[in-house]
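In this section we walk through a basic example: taking a raw amino acid sequence and producing a predicted 3D structure, encoded as discrete structure tokens. The instruction is simple. Fold the sequence below.
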Amino acid sequence: MPGNNSIALAKNYISILDEVYKKASVTADLTSDSTMMRAGANVNEIVYPQIEVGGLGDYDRNSGYTSAGVKLQWVTAKFNYDRGAKLEVDAMDNNESMNLAFTQAGAELQRTRGAPEADAFTFATVCGFKGITLKEETLGNAEAFLKALIEAKNKMDEDEVPEEGRILYATPTLMNGVMALDTTKSREILNAFNVKKKVPQSRFYTAIHLLKGKDDEAAGHYERAKADYVQTEDTAVDSSKTYYTKAGNVYTAVTSPQTADLPGYYEQVSAAGKDINFMIIHKPAIIKFDKHIASDVIPAKLNAQADGDILKYRKYGLVDHYQNKAAGFYVSHKA
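The resulting token sequence is shown next.
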């Protein structure tokens, strides 16, 4: 039956896509234990437990222990990533390649599009978490990177973040540079991290923009976020704000804003994405819950629009964090 064949094909391609994703992604290690999650009240939500306990008190030989409160909250989070694509491969191309074209198209989607975008989304989302350490700095060489790593390690140690479970992400240039030093000091610092991952700069931004895949963003995928501006509504100069003038697509900060000129001024409502140097994540602090769903595989004979096999692929998930574990994130980025 065509329907049964489609189900079998879907299961087959899901396993292929997941395998390629895990090989190509640098953030697959961050995936959370799904047993700690449960369905929320709405279809686009999950809930996860967050526990807080009180401190120790004096022990009294007559009355015994003091009471320490236990607060268990089930926190609701909405899935914040919902992306998909439809691949169509001409039936003759697929037949002449002995069905490799269809499979390779799905693998190529993951290797060159799915995995990089998932990584970029994860890193950019982490940079938006409240309370984490975000440090702006330029690391010109391996020695500067090594010094910054020591500073980051000191910060997390002082904040009592357990060393076990820390994952270091850094650009290949920085990571290779420290490895090339091959000194006792460099080896000790790198060995302080359970997992070390090289992240191409093209995936490593503090903010990204997910392209819609239609209209003027038909190519899909993502790009580094650009600064966004709106015309100011102020009627008097606010000394706490930076105003900008616009010439074409270029915005320039105003050094001495004048009330009379306010109608021509703009305010920045979101900053441009910046290059990340390195990021340290304590895995127990992050919530990364992924679902890979190939909703359907449509063989060419059931495709009413064209003589081609179709694979529908959708990735639906969540990147969030435990709010009482913000110290488990350290980000170094360029200016």
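Looking at the output, two observations stand out. Helices lie at 2-24, 91-96, 100-127, 142-158, 172-181, 184-191. Residues 36 and 48 are 6 Å apart (CA to CA). In the next section we compare this with other chains.
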